[in-house]
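User: Structure with S-adenosylmethionine, tokens only please.
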Amino acid sequence: MLADRRGRRISYLRISVTDRCNLRCRYCTGGVKQFIPHDDILRYEELHGIIATALDLGVAKVRLTGGEPFMRLGFADFVKEILVRNPGVDLRITTNGTLVGPHLEDLYQAGLRRLNISLDTLDRERFADITGRDLFPEVHQAIGRALNLGYNVKINAVGMKGVNDDELPAFLDLARSHPIDVRYIEFMPMGGCGRWGADAVWSSEEILARARNLAPLEEIQVDSPTRGPARIFRIRGGQGRLGLISPLSGHICSICNRLRLTSDGRLRTCLFSDKEYRLRPILRHPRLGLARAAEVVRRATLDKPLGEELLRARRERDELVCSKGMLSIGG
Ligand code: SAM
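Assistant:
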């Protein structure tokens, strides 16, 4: 079983399969980005090896993210192959929802059940303004089709004052009238070229206070080793739920169970630490390979830091929460 020196059991691996994205969200990519050269991106076969190794080590939940994962050629086939090779794996995808539509049926038939769709607004014009692309109808349709097929759908919205804070009633209505979990994540000052402003940060506490005025909420205690960082609230009489993820204002680092792998094969053990363990040279080395990579993962995990300590120090120095952007890390 993978664990760190603090006794945290590590059961969740997030893999970014590409750093490319078809959207240009103001707060994420913003302007120009230098993409990772193709040869440096882990090949699908290398990722299969990593996933099998991680599952052997005790990882129970794998999330594929990006960039936009569906931007990568052959991604849907890769997902199907993961499900064939690892029956019963708890596999999830985080996507912006613009390109997933044509693959929904196939992937459902292959056994995929969980989709997180990032969507910060329910308004078409605002969507185009935030993302730089007029693709709201594609996302809207994908959500509807995913629900009809039986997917478990979560919507992740970055809560930003002055940008989308007026849409809380609409998002709550969506969660009330559909079996969708709407989860707000606090806006973080990340590296990369996204635009961030302290004034736009909308804390989870503020969101919760406002939401309580709009709907009767009951907090649900989630007690699972693979649970995520969200506080979850049932909306009385509703089908879906509200979730709040508070990377800035409230930490649950003491129960953090995750590792991250960037698309060029760098293992990160904490969102707030820039320390990376380069697995790609090990995987491509003729005498090393997966066995050595597994050893590195095990040792890196032992040293997984307590993110809130790093974050506090960074914030005191007025620094970004991490030097890379979300596009590279995958959220
Ligand atoms: N393209 C996929 C998607 O849109 O879900 C996966 C990658 S995207 C970088 C992952 C998540 O990171 C998205 O939900 C996005 O909103 C979030 N994100 C990006 N920049 C952020 C920031 N500065 N603060 C908080 N969340 C951020």
